Amino acid sequence: MKLQKIFFTFAFFVLLVLLVPQILWAAPGEFSASQTVKKIYTVIDFESIFMNRRKEEILKALGEPDSKIQIQGKEVWKYNQMVKDKEQIWDQNIMFDFGRVNYIWSDQPKVKEKKK
């Protein structure tokens, strides 16, 4: 009886050693591909990190913007839900001039209308 317990305990640990690394290595790849989480910055952090940076550096850090528009001949990129300020999450606009960030500002958060 004691020999059987030792055998089953040994077999259990062998299976555990063989299966756990595969489970642990497979999980991060699956989650990272299906769930992309945006980092939420404070206004001060966002401006200090991205002000006076080149487009390529911002693309590398934040990825593609949610929209691109032209305002007064300057390119403006909009990132939705990027900045937390006054206990709300705001959109963030980045204006480029000569290939560098010229100005950064936050939009007012979208306010949901109350049903009457």
Topology of this protein?
Layout (H helix, E strand, L loop, with lengths): L1 H33 L6 E2 H8 L4 H8 L4 E5 L2 E12 L2 E10 L2 E7 L10
Parallel strand pairs: 1-3
Antiparallel strand pairs: 2-3, 3-4, 4-5
Describe what you observe in this structure:
There is one protein chain. This protein is of the alpha+beta class and 116 residues long. It folds into 2 domains: 37 residues; 66 residues, Beta-lactamase Inhibitory Protein, Chain:B, domain 1. It is built from 3 helices and 5 strands. Strands 1, 2, 3, 4 and 5 form a 5-stranded mixed sheet that branches. Strand 3 and strand 4 form a beta hairpin. The longest helix is centred in the first third of the chain and has 33 residues. It is elongated and about 85 Å long. The chain starts with a helix and ends in a 10-residue tail after the last strand. About 8% of the residues have low confidence.
Give the class from helix and strand content and strand pairing: alpha+beta
Q: What would the average pLDDT be, to the nearest integer?
A: 77
Count of alpha/pi helices: 3
CATH architectural type of the largest domain: 2-Layer Sandwich
Helix content: 40-55%
The separation of the N and C termini measures 74 Å
Q: What global shape is seen?
A: elongated
Number of strands: 5
- Low-pLDDT sequence parts: 27-35
Count of discrete domains: 2
Q: How would a crystallographer describe the biggest sheet?
A: 5 strands, mixed
CATH class of the largest domain, named Alpha Beta
CATH topology descriptor of the largest domain: Beta-lactamase Inhibitory Protein, Chain:B, domain 1
Order of helices and strands: HEHHEEEE
Strand content: 25-35%
Global Rg: 25 Å
